[in-house]
Design a protein that fits this description.
By secondary structure, this protein is an alpha/beta fold. It has eleven helices and 19 strands. The strands form six sheets. Strands 1-18-17-19-15-16 form a six-stranded mixed beta sheet. Strands 7-2-3-4-12 form a five-stranded mixed beta sheet, with helices on both faces. It has a two-stranded antiparallel sheet with strand order 5-6. Strand 15, helix 10 and strand 16 form a beta-alpha-beta unit. Helix 4 runs antiparallel to helix 5. The protein is globular. The relative contact order is 0.19.
Length: 406
């Protein structure tokens, strides 16, 4: 089981500006941009190497955030990547709720690791990296996470009891080399706890993330329908199975309340859907590209307070000090504050003493944005490049000075 590193910093928790996704960019471009930066190919028009002021102006109070959200992800007992992910959200302002199934092989720029399927980030960085990678994918700040192993799920379903699920299609598993066994037929059926676990954790033959998602959507529909008449019973079931909710950065009351709120909604007030993706072929591996405009439209339709995707600031983060995982730490300070990390990697050398924040916009607004990044991460020399490029708005080369303020 990946180590639970605990809740992230308060600054990340309170920055709830809902930024949006635009382009899915490959790692080759990152190498080109990094080469320009570290090979001396960038001419600087201006430098602001003053450290952040010791006396900061009083921050403007952030508007109250009406959305409560939890990223739930399924794993096998004993560890491994996330098999499936679902974002559960309730909006107090509009009194609507949503469940968004997220294919585990959705491609995203994982801070410090490059382009990966979002579910794979769990193995390389634990729940915190999975959480920030999903935020980077969706363009929102997520409040909490819950890791639900197949064993945990069984414990929860023993508390809820059997649930009627309209299984969308047959599911078969291999038996030997040339035989298959039917474990689910198509149609409405009442499933006991063991079968509910199989429904959610067994991909089946000739099944991909998209087909897998239709089963998950049917499950959430069935769960909330089962407790629509008495949503507090669903909260009580969660509390009775509190041992299944341990791998989380929130307490059982938070999870029980969110489940109860979603179950209390009428069907018209609750959306259960899948993230819009398109399967691509990458060396025979299952991977899905994300239609950023469709994702932006989906998130805007489900959650209040989501910012215009055109306001999103695209950032490249380069490790210039050689400490593993440093890109993730920087990303956690930026994502959710109107920034999207679209490229990550190592700088040409790993002995930068000072962090560089490079803007490609020499206007007053462009330089102010770079200083805002400096304030968020705590260090940095602001530099303005005369060489424009259309991939990112800002590049951050993380130096050794960042290590002293972590």
């Amino acid at each position: 089981m990946p180590e639970n590193l605990g809740p992230r910093g308060e600054a990340l928790r309170t920055r709830r500006a809902k930024s949006r996704r635009r382009t899915l960019t490959g790692g080759g471009t990152a190498a080109i941009v990094a080469g320009l930066l570290v090979a001396g190919g960038v001419a600087y028009l201006a430098t602001d190497d003053a450290p952040p002021s010791a006396v900061q102006p009083e921050p403007t109070a952030a508007p109250a955030d009406s959305v409560t959200s939890t990223l739930v992800f399924g794993t096998r007992e004993g560890g491994g990547p996330a098999i499936w992910l679902a974002l559960l959200a309730y909006d107090e302002e509009t009194q609507v709720g949503s469940v968004i199934y997220i294919p585990a092989h959705s491609a995203v720029e994982v801070p410090g690791r490059g382009l990966q399927g979002v579910g794979d980030s769990l193995e390389s960085g634990g729940p915190p990296l999975l959480l920030v990678s999903t935020e980077n994918l969706l363009g929102i700040d997520i409040d909490n996470y819950l890791e639900l192993s197949d064993r945990d799920a069984r414990t929860f379903f023993e508390a809820t009891g059997p649930i009627s699920v309209d299984v969308p299609e047959q599911v078969k598993v291999a038996v030997g080399k040339e035989r298959a066994r039917l474990i689910f037929d198509e149609g409405l059926q009442r499933l006991a706890p063991d079968f509910l676990v199989q429904l959610l954790y067994t991909r089946g033959l000739e099944s991909d993330d998209i087909e897998f998602g239709t089963r998950h959507i049917a499950f959430w529909d069935g769960l909330f329908d089962a407790f629509a008449g008495d949503p507090e019973n669903l909260a009580a079931a969660a509390k009775a199975a509190r041992g299944a909710f341990i791998e989380s950065d929130a307490d059982i009351t938070t999870h029980a309340q969110l489940l109860s709120r979603l179950a209390s909604l009428d069907a018209a007030e609750r959306t259960i859907t899948s993230l819009p993706v398109e399967q691509v072929s990458v060396g025979g591996s299952e991977l899905y590209s994300v239609d950023s405009e469709d994702v932006a439209a989906l998130m805007d339709s489900l959650l209040s307070g989501v910012s215009d995707p055109q306001d999103e600031i695209k950032v490249q983060v380069l490790n210039g000090n050689g400490v593993p995982g440093i890109g993730q730490e920087v990303a956690e300070k930026l994502i959710g504050g109107g920034f999207r990390v679209v490229l990550t990697g190592n700088a040409r050398r790993l002995n930068y003493e000072h962090t560089l924040i490079i803007t490609y916009d020499d206007s007053a607004e462009g330089q102010a944005l770079a200083r805002r990044v400096r304030d968020l991460i705590g260090v940095g020399e602001v530099q303005v490049s005369s060489q424009s490029q259309g991939i990112v708005d800002l590049t951050i080369v993380i130096g050794k000075d960042f290590l002293r303020i972590r």
